[in-house]
Design brief:
- The complex is a heterodimer.
- By secondary structure, chain A is an alpha+beta fold.
- Helices cover about 20% and strands about 30% of the residues of chain A.
- Chain A has a 6-stranded mixed beta sheet, with helices on both faces. In chain A, strands 14-17-16-15-18-19 form a 6-stranded antiparallel β-barrel. Chain A has a 5-stranded antiparallel beta sheet with strand order 5-6-7-4-8.
- The termini of chain A are far apart.
- Chain B is of the alpha+beta class.
- Chain B has 4 helices and 9 strands.
- In chain B, strand 1 (about 1-5) and strand 2 (about 10-15) form a beta hairpin.
- The longest helix of chain B has 8 residues, at about 110-120.
- Classes of the chains: A alpha+beta, B alpha+beta.
- At the A-B interface, loops of A face strand 4 of B.
Chain lengths: ~375, ~120
Amino acid sequence: MSDLLYTPLHNLHVELGAKMVPFAGYDMPVQYPMGVLQEHLHTRSKAGLFDVSHMGQVIIKGADYETAAAALETIIPVDILGLGLDRQRYGFFTNETGGILDDLMLANRGDHIFMVVNAGCKVDDIAYMKAKLNDVTVTEITDRALLALQGPAAEAALSTLDAKAADMRFMDVASLTLAGVECWVSRSGYSGEDGYEISVPAAQAEALAKELLALEDVEPIGLGARDSLRLEAGLCLYGQDMDTGLNPIEASLPWAIQKVRRTGGARAGGFPGADVILAAIENGIERRRVGLKPEGRAPMRQGVPLFEAEDGGAQIGFVTSGGFGPSVGGPVAMGIVADSLREPGTVLYGELRGKRLPVTVVSLPFIPANFKR
Amino acid sequence: MKFTEEHEWLREEDGLVVVGITEHATTQLGDIVFVELPDVGTTVTKDEEVVVIESVKAASDIISPLDGEIVEVNDALADNPALANEDAIGAGWFFKIKPSDVSQMDGLMDESAYNALIA
């Protein structure tokens, strides 16, 4: 009846009493019996285990690292050649108009590049890389699960399985032996907390998850809390806060484009939409993504139109992601606004159920990042 | 206590009717984080949207089960929306309505009929 795909942890989710929902073609846990609110707070205070096996895992391999890195730099506007061994970096594919096709994490693993892309984009991303890249092989890894262990207790938890976990810094990658098998681990995530993402062979995924869940501080966390955690952390969700119609500068991601790829840099441009994106860095933009704090208690969700005035006037933006922030204890949002209105402290109005309610532009993140640098 | 198909409960109390949503509803909605109650003194008609609630998942409208006047609202719920999850049929009540036509109560479900509905 259902065409939904299952991750290697599907049985475990059901066993744990998860509420399952369709997401990006997969039957995924949106919450466990603990509930979204407590799952969110638990991740911020202890450690949460997330199944993110729906995401795409890809290996890009050339004659050497430089070959693969140089190839990827033709479609990703970040410094990949300069990425150190066993280091990870954030990036995105751009299109000819400077828009974003998908965002991703990539890692220098010496003889290859390991990449993680969004579930909803992975088919297109892989076809795109295969079509565009010369002198490399692009291989989707379909026999591994991907787990995320996030929160201040993540280091202590993972170190009980392999002590080397504690030696990693933020954005380091390493091969660790977990549940008796080699796992590809990065010290990163999507919650604003310290933590790890763990690529584990599918056959050992459930054993590893159970081993982690048996630890006192670790609880299973669903996609609901994953979304509120990343929103409080000011992290973009592809398809909401960024898409093909928004360039990386408008998406407030200029930090992801290192100097070497900008005008005047040794490898400036050379990626789709470079003219638009580099001009945006030089000359400024008309609109951009900002943090938004609704003043009352009412959440302002995706699509809420934003105005400069309480009455009348043209729409000057819209909410791209919004909801209740459990750690903030109130509503939080991000949105695209006219660039002239980007300054923190600017009061705008979101139209909710026919009423315009005040919302203040704020710096992101809402909750300070808790990374081990 | 009476129940509607919209998962509201109604309890008669001193000529007024106290209205809230059932535990089944709050379980389905998940953690409730926002409740917007009507102003006291508002005249409402049956099936009119009177309360907005938001859970961690989505916004929902609650409709008035009766014609009448809103005579009291649960300010404690507005301050602490989690009351609706914690004590749906007690401290998590929404509003009290002075019905203009008590006979509108007659068509509502009793507890066993409601339990059959959600079974």
